[in-house]
């Protein structure tokens, strides 16, 4: 029987509280596109992507209209390109990057991820060439996103790769300085990166993934905040946690429906549903707003990390009851520029860099969309990355750094990207030098719990 109350509740979640399918991401393996000739590789890549994804946007739009469930982004992720280009006698990774960008444009998606390499234990020749090409590739493309995994709980932290990525971030921002360093906004450095993540900039099609699959990211910070507010100020924290679990179950059920139906229509397997609470700059769609509903004066107050830990755990507990295929990142995102409440907290000085780092120990994904002064030394950026990788390595969780050193900007300035990327104040970073440490190179060994075979 149709339950009228449940129908009205779902309508309210969508219309009043910004419930949406944040992304449907088609993961496509490009392993069979390898060839010794880069021109053949590019042709293979373009043909395969446009063949598989030709109906992705059309069918997603039809589904959105039929079910009145907003699907905000349609995206593609591919096999890490360092692997695909490595077979070429004279690899031209920028040419491959432009091919990916063209394929994404012709398929009608807004982003394509997978300009990636996995270098937590060391770099091959192909890895090095791809990493060196990232700044130029991001500067010459519109839809391309890049991610590099430099650490894992099993391998430790590749500090040579950490320092190299700090240099690449600076170059990427510098080459796109006319757009406030937006190249760096499409580049993320990971520890323990998952191969089925549907969210950008870190999405890629992992080695163990099928030929093609549809991964779904569902989001509803506004829905969670509204649910918490219904309990009032007298409800204890156990009641809050149970309410969040209950609403996470309902959000996940919606995402599961969309993912399975759309995958069936596209005639590809359904992959995973990512439970992440991904905010937007829109008012009422903020993770920071949930903290206020819980009773904190603002994000950044003492207690914020505890509130985030409870939120993250409750979302996962509720979500896994609604789907047997939960994957990706699955947690609460805290991107500074993409969350209205986080932007406000950072602008007012309530939310400091150190507090953000502490919060990343209990959430997904990490230091995300943080703008810093353009003259920040490479070694300082490397130290920031190393700290975040250590949190992920020790805690057996995914962590990441997406940081933007904005040329010509300093503390008190602001960058405005618009759309989902939002805006961000330039945040202060520690001025003490990290150079002597990060320039030692080598690998920080994996922790003892990595020996668990």
Could you name the key traits of this structure?
Anaerobic Ribonucleotide-triphosphate Reductase Large Chain; eleven-stranded mixed sheet; globular; 453 residues; 43% helix; single chain; two-stranded antiparallel ribbon; alpha/beta
The appropriate CATH architecture is Alpha-Beta Barrel
Terminal residue distance:
49 Å
Please identify the top-level CATH class.
Alpha Beta
Percent of residues in helices? 40-55%
Q: Number of domains in the coordinates?
A: 1
Radius of gyration of CA atoms, rounded to a whole number: 21 Å
Q: Give the overall average pLDDT.
A: 89
Instruction: Give the overall silhouette.
Output: globular
Total beta-strand segments: 13
Element pattern in H and E: HEHHEHHEHEEHHEEHHEHHHHEHEEEHE
CATH fold-level name: Anaerobic Ribonucleotide-triphosphate Reductase Large Chain
Please give the largest β-sheet: 11 strands, mixed
Which consecutive residue ranges, at least 5 long each, have pLDDT under 50? none
In terms of structural class, how would the helical and strand content be classed? alpha/beta
Report the portion of residues in β strands. Answer: 15-25%
